[in-house]
Write a structure and sequence with these properties.
- The protein is of the alpha/beta class.
- It contains ten helices and 14 strands.
- A hairpin with a 4-residue loop joins strand 1 (49-51) and strand 2 (56-58).
- Helix 1 packs across helix 2 (19-26) and helix 1 packs across helix 4 (60-82).
- The chain is elongated.
């Protein structure tokens, strides 16, 4: 048995939760995928997956095997890259998880990366809440704000810029807030990120004010908040990536510009700093440069 291939197959099955989907991704037949996983289980003398006619789930042993299998694959890839010629190119798939606004920003730019690296594939995942990097087989994830998990490698690559905005039709006939205390009484649309959808933080560079908000609408997707704001639903805090073009076009109005939303660190997290494959470092370097190219994220 080729244990490296079997481990790759196991990781893909665990990620997709499907033998058929894993077979498509790995360019194998479904029976071949099933045979590799069964051979791995026989080699380890333990069951890694619960199988039923319509469901697939990891056993406790399978959950424990995931990070170990990932480390083995990373080590093998690093060894392979170390033995390549000096002009080695990045190849393979990188799973990159991003908040929706930054995901849109990157999707406009990734074509140049892929053109420069024909053997590279990027699986772009727009996700508002933190992932389980190992269980979800995420290579790189961008998180906004402090990173609480000390087991992850963390690299700060920039800062968010957001605006408090509203549509002209919402503001018509209403007093436009000039300071945080003026927000009381307004309809608010809140973005619920990692469970927090009821507080806004503002800073004028010297003082920071955190407000508890009583929102009329809460959404766990920033693009839904964006659309509701354009429709005249109320005040919202939106990333400059989403709000900028609408402010320039007059579809949204920047409110309280002298007391903007507090900036948050933009962090990239990944499972380990050891044996990072060339495909991952290539995407990481591109991501860092793309963020630096935007002055509002510097």
């Amino acid at each position: 048995m080729d244990i490296v291939s079997a481990l790759r197959t196991f990781l893909r099955v665990a990620e997709t939760k499907s033998f058929s989907a894993a077979a498509i991704d790995l360019d194998l037949t479904q029976p071949a995928v099933s045979r590799q996983v069964s051979a791995l289980e026989a080699h380890l003398n333990t069951r890694l997956l619960h199988r039923t006619t319509n469901a697939l789930a990891l056993t406790v042993e399978g959950e424990q095997m995931l990070p170990m299998a990932l480390r083995v694959i990373e080590a093998v890839e690093a060894l392979s890259e170390a033995g390549c010629a000096e002009g080695a190119t990045a190849s393979g798939k990188v799973r990159l998880s991003l908040p929706a606004p930054l995901g849109l920003y990157m999707s406009d730019r990734l074509s140049s990366l892929l053109e420069s690296h024909p053997a590279l594939t990027v699986d772009l995942i727009l996700r508002e809440e933190p992932s389980d990097l190992v269980a979800d087989a995420i290579d790189l994830e961008v998180r906004l704000g402090p990173v609480g998990d000390s087991s992850l490698m963390c690299r700060r690559i920039g800062w968010t810029t957001a605006f408090l905005v509203a549509s002209p039709c919402y503001l018509k006939g209403r007093d436009t807030p000039q300071a945080p205390q003026d927000i009381s009484g307004h309809c608010c649309i809140c973005y619920s990120r990692a469970g927090d959808g009821r507080s806004w933080s503002f800073s004028d560079g010297a003082d920071e004010v955190v407000l508890r908000i009583e929102p009329r609408l809460i959404a766990n997707n920033s693009m839904a908040v964006h659309r509701a704001t354009l429709a005249g639903g109320g005040l919202a805090v939106l990333s400059h990536i989403l709000a900028g073009p609408d402010i320039e076009a007059g579809r949204l109005v920047k409110v309280m510009p002298d007391f903007p939303p507090t900036r948050l660190p933009i962090n990239v997290v990944y499972p380990s700093r050891r044996n990072i494959p060339l495909r991952v470092t290539t995407v990481l370097d591109f991501l860092v440069q793309a963020v630096r190219d935007d002055a509002l994220m510097a």
